Amino acid sequence: AALTVRFLTRRFIGEYGDMEFIYSHNLTVDGREILFHIWDVPNSQQTEEGSSEEKRIQWADSFVLVYSICDRASFNILPLKIQFIKAAKEGQSQEKVPIVIVGNKRDLHHQREVSSEEGRLLALSLDCGFYEVSAAE
Fold first, then answer.
1. CATH of the domain at 46
2. Within 13 Å of residue 16, how many CA atoms lie on the same side as its CB?
3. Whether 71 contacts 113, CB under 8 Å
4. How far apart are CA 86 and CA 65, in angstroms?
5. pLDDT over 60 (residue 75)
6. Which of 133, 117, 113 is nearest to 125 (CA)?
7. Is residue 55 part of a domain?
8. Is the entire prediction scored with pTM above 0.90?
9. Residue 135 reports pLDDT greater than 70
10. Which terminus, N or C, of the chain has the lesser number of Cβ atoms within 10 Å?
11. How many CA atoms lie within 13 A of 55 on its CB side?
12. Nearest-5° angle of CA 79, CA 84, CA 90?
């Protein structure tokens, strides 16, 4: 949620509840106006399998999966999530589904549990984009 709010408002808010939100946002890219719809799902709600997660996957055109560099468990669930997304989306068409892995909390490097290299290697092995950021900065 912090990363989404930072993207939408340029402000950092450190604490969020465990709620799911859909945001809409207009952005001009290369002279074209683009409307984003962002379905922000907390990690605790992403663990459910079945119809609700399937609905989210079918709804989306692309995916940004965010983990905390300070929380190995949030990183370790990514391969299964990505395989689930690819099976659901790419099974319907021949097009590659755009997926980006983002390691957040780069500013908390002293609490790091997941190295940048591990993030890059995971993204490379799963054919995803990769970034490391700090929503706070």
1. 3.40.50.300
2. 18
3. yes
4. 13
5. yes
6. 117
7. yes
8. no
9. yes
10. C
11. 6
12. 115
Scanning the structure block, which residue is given the tokens 């190995």?
72
- What beta strand segments (E) does the chain contain? 21-29, 32-40, 63-68, 99-104, 129-132
Domain containing residue 80: 1-132
- Model pLDDT, residue 93: 67
Residue 121, pLDDT score: 98
Q: Work out how many domains the chain is built from and give that number.
A: 1
| CA 92 – CA 79 distance, rounded (Å) | 20
The segment with the largest mean pLDDT, out of 19-23, 40-44, 132-136, is: 132-136
Residue 126: name the closest of 85, 70, 72 by CA.
85
Q: pLDDT, tens digit, for every residue of 22-73? A: 777 788 889 999 887 777 776 654 445 555 777 777 778 889 999 999 999 9
Number of H helices, E strands in the chain: 6, 5
Q: Which residue's entry shows tokens 């290369």?
A: 30
Residue 133 neighbours by CB under 8 Å, 6+ apart = 3, 102, 103, 104, 106
Residue with tokens 């983990």: 67
